[in-house]
Amino acid sequence: MLKSLLIKDYALIENINVEFGKGLNIITGETGAGKSILIDAMGLLLGERASTQVVRKGAKKSIVEGIYDVSSNTKVENLLNANDIDYFSELIVRREVSLEGSNRCFLNDTPTSLALLKDIGNMLVDLHGQHEHQSLLRSVTHIDFLDEFAELSSQLKEYKTEHSKLGEIAKELFVLKNKENSLKEERESYEFQIKEIDAISPQPNEEALLKDELNILQNSEKLLSLTEDIYNRAYENEDSVQDNLAKIQSSLIELSKIDNSFSEMVGEADSAIVIINDISDFIRSYKSRVEDDPTKLDEIRERLGALTLLKKRYGGTLEKVIEHRENIGREYDITSNYNEKIIQLENELKAVRKSTGEIAKKISEIRKLVADKIRTDVISSLNDLGISDSDFRVQINNNQANESAANYLIIDEVKYKFNSKGFDEVEFLLSTNLGEDLKPLSKVASGGEISRIMLALKSILAKSDKLPLLIFDEIDTGVSGRIAQKVGATLKSLSQFHQIISITHLPQIASLSDEHFSVEKKKIGTRVVSSIRKLDSEEKINEVAKLLSGEDVTEASLLSAKELMGLN
């Protein structure tokens, strides 16, 4: 339940902090006093869109904060835990709208996303806006009501996944079929590029290896000269390093016989001789391989030139050339085998039409089962609300697709039209008088009847969903007298299971409140300010009396108010 609501600098509201109670919370006030502004502010806590225009003149930002009792609400607890937000028995939801355009959301003082705020709101509150009942006159909204009753969110999510897949495959197939001529042109272009690249057949890291080899060939004379000189100095000459080291080693051996401290140096000299021999062997082997081959030099230069040309045309680096060849190779395969690809996509599309159809069929079966229960419950509720001898039906139709249709589902080998919610078309039908045929709501229901039908639907949905808080903004539109009493009785009955906040202008409903609040608009200096206050017992009587007789409260209206409130 909503324990308290804080609103600062929102439209006409400067600063209010109201504490709601359990049961039926009634809000009354003159037209234009700011009752609907209060509901709009509550909507911000449910993730509704915010505009900078709501920021009160002279203020920098609007703040709306609600404190909810969420003890034992496992859905909220699990969602908070999944998003690393601390869970307590009280949940603080805050929304800030700045003139600078920033829109900040908080859950228990932790910054969060608008999407998460909306998810939390959907678990806590059902807000029925002032004109929402008019949505019942649009049959396209009826399927959403039905799906809420049927609790089809998981099935619809599965359906939408397949529906998206179906759309993607159908789009790919459509594009492919309409690209035949362009594919032929692309194929010729790819074929030319493939031949050009494959004629040279560049290899990874080939360019670096060729440049190394080119550098060696270009310096072959210098390599031969230097290696010959090193080999002669180290090994070949009469006074070579190898000979001199052998003599030094011999002298060290003689010295070690006299002084043992020279023994270690004998080993070092031996190591030096081994190193010189290794260098000499390497140099001798290397210089034997040095080539002075002008023909090979030209071949490498020509090869590097060809690679450079490919780089200029296809990406700037050899790696990009090779990558481009792989990509156009795949595209070439598609252009060469587009008929096979079309057949493959057509088979995939048929399979997804069937899998999507299977899910849609299951959803439809659940809807039909739930539709029967809704019919019974709505008729019972409408009877309680003063529409006796009524009949109500949830009509579910399925339309087969034409043989030439491009988009369809396959269900039991039959083609059906479909949309993002399945293959059902749902419409609520009503008869308000005995013996009359069922007709669409827009053709038979008055404004008052539409309000009561919406209340009946909300009542049934609320009982199944167990939403903690229901908010009704003038659900009593178009009703009065005896019917108003029945609407009030329904709200009062609902308040046994839920906290209800309801804006009303009818005394029959206001008289049933557990808590009564009055919204007032006052002129303070040059500014108009809306405020709300909780009424005590005497003030509640006076407020109901005002609803009966107007501003001039009479003794008769006070007596009538007490009678409505059951105080006589």
CATH homologous superfamily descriptor of the domain at 1-130 and 474-535: P-loop containing nucleotide triphosphate hydrolases
Quick check: average pLDDT?
88
What's the number of helices?
19
CATH class of the domain at 1-130 and 474-535: Alpha Beta
First CA to last CA: what distance?
Answer: 32 Å
Overall shape: elongated
Describe this structure in words.
The chain has helices at residues 35-44, 74-82, 114-124, 142-150, 153-177, 180-200, 206-218, 220-236, 241-258, 263-289, 294-313, 318-336, 338-384, 441-444, 447-465, 481-494, 507-510, 537-549, 555-564, and strands spanning 2-10, 13-19, 24-28, 61-69, 90-98, 103-107, 110-112, 125-128, 391-397, 409-411, 414-416, 425-431, 439-440, 469-473, 499-503, 515-524, 527-534. The protein has 568 residues and is of the alpha+beta class. Among the domains are: 1-130 and 474-535, P-loop containing nucleotide triphosphate hydrolases (Rossmann fold, 3-Layer(aba) Sandwich), CATH 3.40.50; 192-335, no CATH class. The strands form four sheets. It has a six-stranded antiparallel sheet, covered by helices on one side. The model has no long low-confidence stretch (mean pLDDT 88).
In short:
It contains 19 helices and 17 strands. By secondary structure, the chain is an alpha+beta fold.
Sequence-ordered SSE layout with sheet pairings:
Blueprint: E1 2-10, E2 13-19, E3 24-28, H1 35-44, E4 61-69, H2 74-82, E5 90-98, E6 103-107, E7 110-112, H3 114-124, E8 125-128, H4 142-150, H5 153-177, H6 180-200, H7 206-218, H8 220-236, H9 241-258, H10 263-289, H11 294-313, H12 318-336, H13 338-384, E9 391-397, E10 409-411, E11 414-416, E12 425-431, E13 439-440, H14 441-444, H15 447-465, E14 469-473, H16 481-494, E15 499-503, H17 507-510, E16 515-524, E17 527-534, H18 537-549, H19 555-564
Parallel strand pairs: 3-15, 3-16, 8-14, 14-15
Antiparallel strand pairs: 1-2, 1-4, 4-5, 5-6, 6-7, 9-12, 10-11, 12-13, 16-17
